[in-house]
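Troubleshooting log. The previous structure file for this entry was overwritten by mistake, so regenerating from the original sequence record. Sequence copied from the archived sheet and checked twice against the printout by T.R.
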Amino acid sequence: MSLISAAGLAVSYGGRRVLFDIDFTIERGEIVTVVGPNGSGKTTFLRALLGVVAPARGKINRAKGLRVGYVPQRLHIDPALPLPVARFLSLPRHQSRGAIADVLARVGVPDVAQQNMTTLSGGQFQRVLLARALLVRPDILMLDEPTAGLDQPGVASFYQLIDETRREMGCAVLSVSHDLHVVMSASDRVICINGHICCEGAPHVVRAAPEYRALFGFGTGGALALYQHSHDHDHDHAHAEHDHG
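Regenerated output below.
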């Protein structure tokens, strides 16, 4: 059974249709990236799958007992609030000192447990958010533009960490991203959304789709091949779905 599936999903805000006719599935261990222009409904799509936004139409199914680790697009913490990393990781459920040490080591920031959240660098902050998501032992990681504000080396490093986490933990990863040049090449499957699914498939399939090029042009063509997964050949059958509406 798929971890999450959606059929005929539509979402509206204040009478305005944001998403429509969305069919989607994600399987265990799969890395799926959602791309699209600003205002295309990417974050709304993620929020609907999380159950935060109620669909206007359609159905969403989640595997029984599904554990979701979520990394938000941004999280504001009042600079006046003394909130050490270890305390943050124990909200809302207490975590042992050993569990906190283990997960911080896993995400590459082993020495920040006693540091205040507001003093972390951008890259450290995002890794702590990932650590918090990993503490639930997720079946699926859902990431909403988790590298916003990071420099290019930080972006590449973060997504390499995501791939390592997926391989070690066996969880699926669903990521919304603007980092086309890095994250598309790090995905098993790419979904391009602009209110509906314009095209989807393996990165090389989406790269060639006219719907994708109409939205993003040709500039990212060479960069999508920054690195390839060893299992890319398993996804050569992926397809681009054309919208005739």
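Strands lie at 4-13, 16-26, 31-35, 57-62, 68-71, 140-144, 172-176, 189-193, 197-201. Archived copy saved in two places this time.
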